Known about the structure:
Order of helices and strands: EEHEEEEHEE
Helix content: 10-25%
Number of strands: 8
Largest sheet: 8 strands, antiparallel
Shape: globular
Radius of gyration: 15 Å
Number of helices: 2
CATH superfamily: Regulatory factor, effector binding domain
Structural class: alpha+beta
CATH architecture: Alpha-Beta Barrel
Amino acid sequence: MIEPLRILQTTPQLTASIPLRVPREEIRHVMGPGLAELKAAVAAQNVAITGPWFTHHFRNPGEVFDFEICLPVATSFAPVGRVKPGQWSAMKIVQTTYHGGFEGLGNAWGEFIGYIKAAGHKTADGLYESYAIGPETSPDPAAWRTVLSKELLEP
């Protein structure tokens, strides 16, 4: 299930990220270790995490996922290994929240994009997923919440 569309204006957000490019079937094998590496790198520099982790897919996913695992952070930091400092730009986005387990995300994205098109919005290639409530918070997938976002191209 997804919630109704929301249109929001974001503000710039400092991030820590690890860029990855993997075949679709490997995504579940790289996400957990990548997130752990990211958290350890910012913790080692005493950088505060300011919100839920998210992924930024540079292109709409196909057979290969070209994306970055990101953490919003309070301050900049020195790059270490694969972990890079960055910033999520201010942008106008269309957003919804998906309720359910990760296996339903593909269908949720399809439904979300259908609603976007039906509303007459045009969006940039790529997408953002923010993991507001997941397995680390609740063992019940029905309680999980993933925020889906796409950048709007219209004024």
